[in-house]
Design a protein that fits this description.
abc type-2 transporter like fold; mainly alpha
Length: 389
């Protein structure tokens, strides 16, 4: 046990000196990947939320011509303000984002029951202008519907007679298509992060030491060959586990910033989903560690190892794209397949459905079995004299 502990600490200490390894283990997977994948959702949520909740100023020409309209705008978080004298020129210069114009004909048309004309001047190149215009259009649409309703009542007509159909849409599917991408994004992020977290240490522990001529002295120590391999395996596993836990925490923290109604209130990113993601992904850490170690032991030098492992980065993409384009049913057989089972389990967890314990057990058993086979392959490779060549 002492020899095993010495090897593990040696490999961890050597890897901590490598800035590339620390970058991918502590920054790339835990911070940059979640921001790249989840950041656009947060940005979109902020843009959508601004239309309903933010109080904004609306410069309005001729506001006195439509007192009821301006009061309605103020009640809906749009503060009508007096524009500058050269309002349209200021809009062209970029000093204003939007201008609402109420023409002189508005009062007469309104009293006569004719469509009253309103003009919205805006600059489409300005993002803030687009947000304000969307908010203003939503409020004006509501005002238009309210006026239509009141005019029909004033003439003794039931407004519902002019709405012959009442359409109620009810989705009875158990597979919410809009959420599948989110459900698949989480295991993809974790897989890619774990691969990158153990990548450089896996290359350095075998191919790197062979090039530095430090592998032969290590293997010549009075230690069983399996102790050396297990020590390297545990050292890589530490960084892989770190690259699992940190992005899991950061991604779920980012998801909690999303509004509850952004995805129709059916996205479940609470404690239960976090726990399911952690439990289902832990066996993958053992599998990916054994895979990285075996590939690195098979390569003759660092460049060859990096080439092999770079191609291996495609593995997390296979179930991700497979589930996007293929109709793969969930059953006991698919739960025995590593990676695919984790993706399918997260589909259930993210959409708030129960995950059968037997499926978690089958997924864990299948993944750990393949991990044991790959670790056995690494032990076999290390037992050959070719490992030193």
């Amino acid at each position: 046990m002492k020899g095993l502990r010495v090897i593990v600490l040696k490999e961890i200490r050597d890897n901590l000196r490598d800035r590339r390894s620390l970058f991918f283990a502590l920054l790339y997977g835990p911070v940059l990947l979640p921001l790249l994948l989840i950041g656009p959702l947060l940005l979109n949520a902020g843009q959508l939320g601004a239309d309903r909740s933010q109080v904004r100023e609306v410069p309005t020409l001729g506001a006195t011509r439509a007192e009821n309209l301006t009061q309605f705008l103020r009640r809906n978080n749009l503060d009508v303000v007096e524009p500058p004298a050269d309002a349209k020129e200021a809009l062209h210069r970029g000093e204003m984002t939007l201008l609402l114009e109420i023409p002189e004909s508005y009062p007469e048309d309104f009293r006569a029951g004719r469509p009253a004309h309103l003009i919205i001047h805006y600059n489409s190149a300005d993002d803030d202008s687009l947000l304000l215009r969307r908010q203003l259009q939503n409020v004006l649409t509501g005002y238009d519907a309210q006026l239509r309703h009141l005019r029909l009542l004033a003439r003794g007509l039931d407004p519902q007679r002019f709405e012959p159909l009442e359409i109620d849409q009810r989705d009875v599917s158990n597979e919410p298509q809009g959420l599948q991408f989110i459900a698949h994004m989480i295991p993809f992020l974790l897989l890619f992060s774990m691969m990158m977290g153990g990548f450089y240490l896996a290359v350095d522990t075998t191919a790197g030491e062979r090039e530095r001529n430090s592998l032969e002295p290590l293997l010549s120590l009075p230690l069983p060959r399996h102790t050396v391999v297990l020590g390297k395996y545990l050292a890589i596993l530490c960084f892989v586990l770190l690259s699992l836990l940190l992005p899991l925490l950061s991604s779920f923290g980012l998801f909690r910033l999303l509004p509850d109604d952004m995805l129709d209130g059916v996205l479940e990113m609470g404690t239960v989903t976090f726990f399911v993601a952690l439990v289902s992904s832990l066996p993958l850490a053992f599998l990916l560690t054994a895979f990285l170690l075996a590939i690195a032991a098979f390569a003759r030098n660092s460049r060859e190892a990096q080439t092999h492992l770079s191609l291996a980065m495609l593995l997390p993409m296979l179930p991700f794209f497979g589930l996007q384009f293929l109709d793969i049913q969930r059953d006991n057989m698919t739960m025995l397949l590593p990676m695919l089972s984790q993706f399918q389990i997260m589909e259930l967890a993210v959409t708030g459905r129960d995950v059968p314990l037997v499926w978690l057990a089958l997924s864990t058993a299948g993944t750990l079995t393949v991990a044991a086979l790959l670790l056995g392959l690494a032990l076999r490779l290390y037992s050959r004299e070719r490992i030193l060549m």
